[in-house]
Amino acid sequence: MTRPTPPVVPPRNVLVARAEALNVVLPPEVMELAETFVDAGHDLVLVGGPVRDAFLGRSSADLDFATSARPDETEALLSRWTKATWDMGRDFGTIGGKRNDLVVEITTFRADEYDGVTRKPVVAFGDSLEGDLARRDFTINAMALRVATGEFIDPFGGLDDLAGGLLRTPVGADVSFGDDPLRMMRAARFVSQLGFEIEPATFAAMGRMADRITIVSAERVRDELTKLLMGADVRAGLTALVDSGIAAHVLPELPALQLEVDEHHHHKDVYQHTLTVIEQAIDLETGDDGAVPSPDLVLRLAALMHDVGKPATRRLEPGGVVSFHHHEVVGAKIATKRLKALRFEKDVIKAVAHLTELHLRFHGYGEARWSDSAVRRYVTDAGDQLERLHRLTRADVTTRNRRKAERLAFAYDDLEARIAELRAKEEIDAIRPDLDGTEIMETLGIGPGRAVGDAYKFLLELRMEHGPLGTERAQEELRTWWSARA
């Protein structure tokens, strides 16, 4: 599969033309809503992401507006436009509404202040649109459209930054990131999603303010990291996190992979290897109709974490060879601990840890072709992560030795063919003994107890080793085992 690419930013003259015509593409219902506010003496402007996305040729399902009206006034005016309103964001000045399929959220101009200790603002309403735009994260999100007149408002040069593919804060970056440190992670996320670069002064401020990210909740950090990983240029986004020093606080396992490479290159650069594995894993995602839909968070997290056990297991062996024995087992534990700290869902954590622990299982297949029993165990151990394991294992090949890469690819092709052959002959995705618990008790004439479990394990081992036995042979083998046990 071709790796997704960030949206292409048109030349500035095209962006200007889109700015002038932006109001034309707004639904008639929005114009009606704007007239309602204007008639009441209030401003209504489209702000933030929807404006940016319109320039990029992308539509937004939800529309965000800012207004000079206070929340009570907004609610009253919005109720004239639709009966479907909600006010969960009232404390922050936001009232929402829906009319047919159109969802809008309208927020009173804000002039918040921050206490410098948390990222939660002291909410204060303002009277200035420019003041409201100044408190936004980046200039490309600080553009607005006055709906009633079609006037494009860009006090901080967001259009130029959009055309240049730059991320820059509307006010001083130290002030902006000091107010809300999560904006630093958002910068890295936009690098991945949009393919933009962080303006040098803004990036320098990220380095100075990196430790401020520690006041942000784990859930918020997780959400931004997830969006970054689901972007089009994940490598660039992660590099921004590492080079700015932010990863050292939120994902320290990643910069820890920057192990010193010995002069004889007895081991590869694990950090760069990991970034390459992520890219190659993304290339192997199979799309919406495939076994691993794209984008796939679990696969991308597994590629990110698969070698995190290497720093802890690095050893210098006789002869100067560097080893990482059992790094897959150690790595699974490290991945579990980090993902729990970031509040990922239990199923995601379990899957990523499982893939991390299994990612080396294939090695050795090319040297000694596995028996059918070994193939069955590989499938059984992988369980519902088999398709992701296929892709992670293939992505983990980053050698520049063409012959070695081709040999490994051929070996894995052979393994997948072996799995397909066995699937055609027998059920190998959920292997069970030929006899269930009830049949075991009937065959041996015993009741429930530990012996039934032992017998089940014995029959399961036979099934793994020899494939389906059939009821009669399974009963015969079971009786022989039982007699020897007695």
Give structural notes.
The protein is an alpha+beta fold and about 475 residues long. The protein folds into three domains: about 1-165, Beta Polymerase, domain 2 (2-Layer Sandwich), CATH 3.30.460.10; about 250-425, Hypothetical protein af1432 (Orthogonal Bundle), CATH 1.10.3210; about 435-485, no CATH class. Helices cover about 50% and strands about 10% of the residues. It is built from 23 helices and eleven strands. The protein has a seven-stranded mixed β-sheet with strand order 3-4-5-2-1-6-7. A two-stranded parallel sheet has the order 8-9. The chain is elongated, with a radius of gyration of 29 Å.
Q: Roughly what is the average pLDDT, rounded to an integer?
A: 89
| Cα separation of the termini | 58 Å
CATH class bucket of the largest domain:
Mainly Alpha
> What sort of overall outline do the alpha carbons produce when their principal axes are compared?
elongated
User: Which CATH architecture of the largest domain is right?
Assistant: Orthogonal Bundle
From the 3D structure, determine the CATH topology of the largest domain. Answer: Hypothetical protein af1432
The DSSP helix count reads: 23
Unreliable segments of 5+ consecutive residues? none
Q: What profile does the largest beta sheet have?
A: 7 strands, mixed
Q: Which strand order does the major sheet show?
A: 3-4-5-2-1-6-7
Radius of gyration: 29 Å
- Share of β-strand residues: 5-15%
Approximate helicity band? 40-55%
E-strand count: 11
The count of domains is 3
Structural class assignment: alpha+beta
GO molecular function, one term: tRNA binding
EC number: 2.7.7.19
Cofactor: Mg(2+)
InterPro entries: Bact_CCA-adding_enz_type3_sf, HD/PDEase_dom, HD_domain, HDIG_dom, NT_sf, PolA_pol_head_dom, PolyA_RNA-bd, tRNA_adenylyltransferase
